[in-house]
Specification:
With 546 residues, this protein is of the alpha/beta class. The strands form four sheets. A five-stranded parallel β-sheet has the order 7-6-5-11-12, with helices on both faces. The protein has a four-stranded antiparallel β-sheet with strand order 1-2-4-3. The longest helix has 25 residues. About 1% of the residues have low confidence. Among the domains are: 94 residues, 2-Layer Sandwich (Gyrase A, domain 2), CATH 3.30.1360.70; 115 residues, Isoleucyl-tRNA Synthetase, Domain 1, CATH 1.10.730. It contains 19 helices and 15 strands. It binds one RNA strand of 75 nucleotides through helix 2, strand 10, helix 15, helix 17 and helix 18.
Length: 546
RNA sequence: GCGCCUGUGGCCCAAUGGAUAGGGCACCAGCCUCCGGAGCUGGGUGUGUGGGUUCGAUUCCCACCAGGCGCACCA
């Protein structure tokens, strides 16, 4: 039987609040939490405390009226087979206690349906575009890009799993200032290789890879019309390969060059001009972004007649909406944070809802080795690349580690720890639990027919804790989507692995009486399904043995 | 100067405004005739400073202190 008890309880509370006071708008008020301690039941709401001020009553008084209404509804809707008790506890929490039957039913459901039982439909097929990485094709990807790639890809995985129609996009700056400088860097290196004395400007691309490209261009000189385009194409190939090896696949690559050639930039500017949001000053064309919350107006066409970066970006985002996306998510590095307000201003000026676009700043990742920071200098072309991290620690550890702090927080990536094959390394900790289960299941498969399987044989404390932990998976996905941060998944998987290891240590699966052994085999298979789904969403491999 | 991120036990970090602030490392002491010991169990006088909002603040607001990053008619 399909039942999202969490959603049901939320609706019950909202209904009960309406009965209590018809003026309340309970939609945004009701939150359900997992209590800090399982002796406070399975779900908890703080609604009585939150309403104390508005209703001018004590939390206890509010709960005292709310609880009987809830109990009545539960009884009339025959939910009492799953909810056994509602209590007012602590400072005014209303705690819901579930029956064992609820958890046994959920477990049976998961055993029968497998990973489909874990799907929840939050997105209702809403089309979402997640744009991330979008690094200029002027050099290898850095660890900062790597973190954006991991976060973006995994957020996309989670949203796709929870019912959104997700498109991963890479915006390609394939023309403009940086590409020109790239081209000139190549030309200079070619001259140098030909024996000419050159002076190489500091703001040109310093890396050794420019020599490689210069040699290649020199080799096929007649065919290469634009060294800049050639170099960008060459480097883009490297970037694509790096991303592929990192397990990140984009659905679309959006070229700035084609955007300009399509005339969409001029169209977008004409649109804003019609609305009266553009004006000329000092020979440049300005966008009145202050009218939409920015702290100063921004230039869109420079006095020399060329676009600033903002102009194509306005057109690009307009095009995202025109392509039918209802939700736009951009992942940017912290150096772009000052740019948020002007882009949001543009979205508003274009007539779209501010809530339809989320800009997530992915904080910097720094690299250390055995606790010692590894210094980087982009200017000198010396920085740790995604490629180096991949070569050193592998895809699994890299993807997991980049998500181990909240996306909005700095992350220190210690290469030594990521390489360790011990409990210090959470990737191995989770994979080890998975492999342990696989090992047991190799020697004996569970009986999957519901008639022959009696999950009620699972009575030990560690077994019940494990079942409850499994049940929380859906909520974790929910939190990831709401907070637009897939980080929570790594925390949950570590907890699930820990819960399993504790169970494993105290109770034997094989060699019990057949009723208990079947039930435990089914339980660990369910754990493996959840663990496996979680690892899959992270893009981390699920080893059958290690 | 302005903006963003971060200050939690010896060290690294958790806690979508909630209940007794949790883990890991290190250190000490235990657990394999038994499904994988890459595991488990036990051991803890800690939220940078000062205010504020709240029934309740590690979390939100203000000021300060400390560290990191960013502040173009670059992209």
């Amino acid at each position: 039987m399909e039942l999202d008890l969490q959603a049901t309880i939320k609706e019950l509370i909202q209904g009960a609040l309406k009965e209590l006071d018809n003026d309340l708008e309970p939609k945004d008020l009701v939150y359900l939490d997992f209590p800090t301690d399982n002796r406070f039941g399975e779900l908890s709401t703080n609604i009585a405390m939150r309403l104390a001020r508005t209703l001018k009553k004590s939390p206890a008084q509010i709960a005292g009226r709310l609880i009987p209404i809830l109990e009545e509804k539960i009884k009339s809707q025959k939910l009492d087979i799953y909810i056994k008790d509602i209590k007012l506890e602590g400072a005014g929490f209303i705690n819901f206690y579930f029956t064992d039957r609820f958890f046994y039913d959920r477990l049976s459901d998961l055993i029968v349906k497998g990973r489909d039982a874990l799907r929840i439909n939050l997105g209702h097929a809403a089309p979402v575009i997640i744009e991330f990485v979008s690094a200029n094709p002027t050099g290898a990807l850095s660890v900062a890009h790597a973190r954006q790639a991991a976060v973006g890809d995994i957020l996309a995985n989670v949203m796709a799993f929870t019912g959104f129609k997700v498109n991963r996009e890479y915006y390609l700056n394939d023309e403009g200032n940086q590409i020109n400088i790239l081209g000139e860097s190549v030309v200079l290196r070619m001259k140098e290789l030909a024996g000419e004395r050159i002076e190489f400007p500091e703001n040109y691309y310093q890396g050794d890879y420019i020599y490689d490209i210069a040699r290649e261009v020199a080799g096929r000189r007649p065919q290469v019309v634009s060294p800049g385009d050639f170099a960008a194409g060459h480097i883009l190939g490297i970037i694509k390969k790096e991303l592929e090896d990192f397990g990140v696949k984009f659905d679309s690559w959006y070229s700035q060059k084609s955007l300009r050639e399509s005339g969409k930039i001029d169209e977008a500017l004409a649109f804003l001009k019609d609305k009266g949001f553009l004006y000329e000053e000092d020979g440049a064309l300005w966008f009145k972004s202050t009218q939409f919350g920015d702290d100063k107006d921004r230039v869109v066409i420079k006095s020399d007649g060329s676009y600033t970066y903002l102009a194509p970006d306005i057109a690009y985002h307009r095009d995202k909406y025109k392509r039918g996306f209802k939700k736009i998510i951009n992942l940017w590095g912290p150096d772009h944070h000052g740019y948020i307000n002007r882009l949001k201003a543009a979205v508003l000026a274009l007539g779209y809802d501010a809530g339809s676009i989320s800009i997530i700043i992915v904080q910097l990742a720094t690299i250390s080795r055995g606790g010692q920071p590894v210094l980087m200098s982009t200017r000198r072309g010396q920085y740790i690349t995604l490629r180096e991290v991949l070569d050193e620690v592998g895809k699994d550890a890299a993807r997991f580690f980049f998500l181990m702090r909240r996306t909005s927080s700095h992350l220190d990536f210690d290469l030594e720890v990521a390489k360790k094959q011990s409990s210090e390394n959470p990737v191995y900790y989770c994979q080890y639990a998975y492999a342990r289960i696989a090992s047991i299941l190799r020697s004996s498969s569970p009986v999957l027919k519901p008639g022959e399987l009696d999950v009620r044989a699972l009575q030990e404390k560690e077994e019940l804790v494990l079942i409850k932990k499994i049940w929380q998976f859906n909520s974790i996905l929910n939190i990831c989507v709401i907070t637009e941060d897939p980080y929570w998944l790594t925390v949950y998987l570590q907890e699930l692995a820990e819960t399993f290891h504790k169970f494993y240590d105290l109770h034997r699966v094989l060699g019990q009486d057949s009723r208990l052994t079947s039930a435990r085999l089914a339980l660990i298979q369910a754990v493996q399904t959840v663990l496996g789904t979680g690892l899959e969403l992270l893009g981390v491999s699920r080893p059958e043995s290690m």
